[in-house]
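Question: Send over one sample?
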Amino acid sequence: MMTLDNNQLELVYETNRASLHQCDTSEIYTLRFNSEVVEFRVCQLIAFKRKIQKIDLAQMFADDTADIEIVYMPHCDRLFALNIHDVLQLKELFAGAFTMLELNSMIHKELVRRPL
């Protein structure tokens, strides 16, 4: 897995416990969460976001189930053991990050259509 220089990374979005950065030259997204740094290609990031979105918080709160969700990402051979707070943080991070990415895309399309 490629390690990026911090100077190449641009902040996409951050919460009080997590951040997502992107590198335009390598097309790598870097997630910083719970003292870990994980790099994703865009398809891997979308797959991870979908796994987080599918986590049923109501089920996690149920008395008869574990309050830890295990998420496996094959591209990095890593298991994420997430508690309810972690899941909430990641859901918030992805909601904000993907909104910012979509906004960036819309702005770029407008600038390309209407050159200065």
